[in-house]
Amino acid sequence: MPSNRAKGQKLDSATNGAASASQNGTVPTDLADAGVCPKCFDTGMEIVPGKGARPCSCRKQKAHSNHLEKARVPKRYANCHFNTYNSQNQSQREAFRYASNLAMEFPATEQGLLLMGTVGVGKTHLAVSILKGLTERGFSCLFCEFGALLKQIQDSYNANTKTSELAVLAPVLNADVLVLDELGASKPTDWVRDTMAHIINSRYNDKRLTIFTTNYLDERRSERDETLEDRIGVRLRSRLFEMCKTVTIAGDDYRRKLGSAALSRKQ
After folding, report:
1. Which DSSP state fits 179?
2. Would you tell me how many other CB atoms lie within 10 Å of the CB of residue 153?
3. Closest CA to 42 of 6, 64, 11, 13
4. How far apart are CA 126 and CA 245, in angstroms?
5. Using 50, 70 and 90 to split pLDDT, how confident is the model at 69?
6. Average pLDDT of the segment spanning 199-213
7. Does the domain at residues 71-257 carry the CATH identifier 3.40.50.1010?
8. Where in the chain are the domains?
């Protein structure tokens, strides 16, 4: 890795050629090595021939990248966007419509979404797509997998850690838009339900938009199945009816299809 001094020398070399490059449309060869924007040479303003200077697009890209990092979207969902969601049936097309409308209409709407369905039907894909769309518009967004959030809170009780429950929960409670993934996945102990109630009620009272995903439905598919109400309790399920539009997504597990396709290619 080049030293800071070496990188600085390359940056100076690239900057010295900026004026002539902007005039004749060429890009100094040292720019790539120095990590300098070829449009504005890291000044934040690009020269448009015949029109003068304007804010460079790199500023917006960097700001968006910073917002996404703060949103804590896992790398696994880096390619999740509305334009990569492939609807396979009517329920998925309707879910896409609700999700994309929410991304366009917020903050004119106070009602979030509860995306429910079996595994692999695209619930998290749509939730992340909403979050990315709103992040691009400058809203404070946060992605949390519910089980991982509970683990963070539990770890905060350890005297050896440098975090506190308040530090863990503050971003969750204060984000303009929260995606709470895998609601109901954790064993419904009293502590888990109390924690869920605190998060949901706080965001409800502050009128903050929340998007939930869950593998649990409102109706039992068999006698052995649990409903979402079984997992989170009657009171919280009732609260979610008011907070969110419930959207049930049906379909086959796309991950299983991907696995079958990969196996076929190897054979």
Report:
1. E
2. 20
3. 11
4. 14
5. confident
6. 96
7. no
8. 4-55, 71-257
pLDDT category, 161, cuts 50, 70, 90?
A: confident
Provide the 3-class DSSP secondary structure of residue 52: strand
Q: What is the pLDDT of residues 39-57, one digit of tens each?
A: 776 676 777 787 767 776 6
Q: What is the total residue count of the chain?
A: 267
Q: State the DSSP string of 203-263.
A: HHHTT-EEEEEES--SS-SSTTPPPHHHHH-HHHHHHHHHHEEEEEE----HHHHHHHHHH
Q: What are the CA-CA distances from residue 135 to residues 106, 128, 196, 253 (Å)?
A: 11, 10, 25, 28
- 190-205 helix and 146-155 helix, angle to the nearest 10 degrees: 110
Binned at pLDDT 50, 70 and 90, residue 67 comes out as low
**Spatial CA neighbour of 120 closest among 212, 253, 250, 248:** 253
Task: Say how far residue 37 (Cα) sits from the centre of its chain.
Answer: 26
267 pLDDT above the threshold of 80: no
Spatial CA neighbour of 251 closest among 87, 125, 130: 87
Q: Report if pTM > 0.85.
A: no
